[in-house]
Specification:
Largest sheet: 8 strands, antiparallel, barrel
Low-confidence stretches: 1-5
Mean pLDDT: 95
Number of strands: 19
Shape: globular
Structural class: alpha+beta
Strand order of the largest sheet: 12-13-14-15-16-17-18-19
Number of helices: 13
């Protein structure tokens, strides 16, 4: 994968190397590796290390912590797409007697199920998984700390429960299902639940001295679906490409897009920070761009995966220290460097292959009351509605094949757009979820709710 590094300009490559060099030095990380993805594949790999000689490359494993959760979420979404569960199903329907059965599958994916952040003591990340052999050992006697569905509260036990759900519905271990349904189809040969050589060792760096202490490497047991995996920048680059566009062998583009959609009510501080959570993916706004991905940490390791779908750029950053470099910031910076230095070149504009006269009649200017909108017919077969001035409600619409259209996003998501014609076949107005859009403001010939004053428009008298 390093052979494609030449695709980035020399100045861009140097800026990327400088950013991870500063992160490794200032963060005092024993080693730090990174990769950048563009166009569906890795186009740059960089590494910095405290050890003389050849630094780690894209085949060296690091522990990725909670990025594991995104893999688990993909497995759950596959179950949904196969009709084996519905995201609105209560957990009790498929996995009874957990004590958290009223929470839905979607709430578990979005960390809104009300579960505790951690399992009962001792701390699960630094003790053997054999101490928690059953779900009851992970959830404790009182699993729910908050009302179900009311707030976002990050929960490691919640993803342990989702892993158990996968095992229940597949009749195989979480690790077996993961390998057959994600790792093998995507070619992630260097991703595993146990470390495989070559792999980095996990270290704690003394906060007040340039000294290190090895961290224990525990098998997390039942908690594996929340954070067990080891991976490489090479494999995570492929995984990032999948999360951007989907892969029908694993999960469709539509279902991956659903994972990237906010699904959790944000805390007040999160609103200010521009951070929320989807279905197994963290979502944030930084440097004016929307970033999705996940961070991860376990004693001795830090990990980050950051993707800007709009810029077609992703970054992977891994380090083998318990604390130090802020990898979320590093990942966002790597994306920004490439996106700003080498902006995405758009695909050539191409016209529609066929023009439906009935659809073409809908194009142009419309008014909702006195608010002016434009409706475009795009080459992708979608309609795009947007205000002509200022900000306002906008959405794209997909054809239902019967003359009606369904909104795909924003205020009009799921709402029905219906062109209404007069008896002579002439297009009269658009009905959008009971909103009447007319060709003129308050068109007297259209059925405007509440009617139109018969004296019409006037000046001050």
């Amino acid at each position: 994968m390093t052979s494609s590094q030449e695709e980035l300009l020399p100045g861009t490559r140097r800026a990327l190397l400088h950013r991870i060099a500063v992160a490794q030095t200032d963060g005092r990380a024993p080693s730090l590796v990174a990769a950048v993805v563009r166009g569906g594949r890795a186009v740059w790999h960089g590494a910095r290390t405290a050890v003389d000689g050849h630094g780690p490359d894209e085949t060296v494993q690091y522990r990725i912590g909670s990025i594991t959760k995104t893999f688990t979420a993909v497995l759950v979404m596959r179950l949904r797409d196969e009709g084996l569960l519905d995201l609105g199903d209560p957990l009790e329907k498929h996995l009874p007697d957990t004590g958290a059965g009223e929470a839905t599958i979607a709430e578990l994916l979005a960390h809104t199920a009300g579960l505790a952040a951690e399992s009962p003591a001792p701390w699960w990340e630094r003790t053997p998984g054999t101490l928690r052999p059953e779900l009851s050992d992970v959830l404790g006697e009182h699993p729910l700390l908050h009302p179900v569905g009311r707030r976002h509260h990050y929960s490691n036990p919640g993803y342990t429960v989702l892993g158990a759900l996968v095992e229940q519905l597949r009749g195989a271990s979480w690790e077996e299902v993961l390998r057959s349904e994600i790792l093998e189809p995507l070619g992630l040969r260097r991703t595993s639940s146990q470390p495989q050589d070559p792999h980095a060792g996990g270290w704690a760096v003394h906060p007040w001295a340039d000294a290190m202490l090895p961290e224990p490497l525990e098998d997390l047991g039942r908690m594996a679906p929340a954070g067990q995996l080891w991976s490489t920048t090479g494999d995570l680059a492929r995984f990032a490409a999948f999360l951007a566009v989907g892969d029908d062998r694993v999960l469709s583009a539509e279902s991956v897009r659903e994972m990237r959609t906010p699904a959790a009510p944000a805390e007040a501080a999160d609103v200010l920070d521009g951070i929320t959570y989807g279905l197994g993916l963290q979502i944030q706004r930084r440097d004016g761009r929307l970033l999705i991905g996940h961070s991860g940490s376990l004693p001795g390791f830090l990990a980050n995966l950051t993707i800007s779908v709009e810029d077609d750029v992703a970054a992977v950053v891994l380090a083998n220290c318990t604390s130090g470099p802020l990898l979320g910031t590093v990942g966002a910076d790597l994306v920004r460097i490439v996106a700003e230095a080498e902006p995405r070149i758009p695909e050539p504009w191409r016209p529609l292959r066929e023009v439906d006269p009935a659809v073409l009649q809908m194009a142009g200017q419309w008014y909702w009351g006195t608010n002016a909108f434009g409706l475009r017919v795009n080459a992708d077969g979608l309609l795009a509605l947007a205000p002509l001035t200022g900000s306002g409600r906008r959405a794209r619409f997909r054809s239902n094949g019967d003359g009606t259209w369904t909104g795909l996003e924003g205020y009009f998501a799921g709402e029905l757009l219906r062109p209404v014609r007069r008896a002579d076949g002439v297009l009269s107005h658009l009905d959008l979820g009971s909103f009447v859009f007319t060709r003129q403001p308050y068109d007297a010939e259209a059925p405007v709710p509440g009617g139109v004053d018969p004296e019409g428009w006037r000046g001050i008298r």
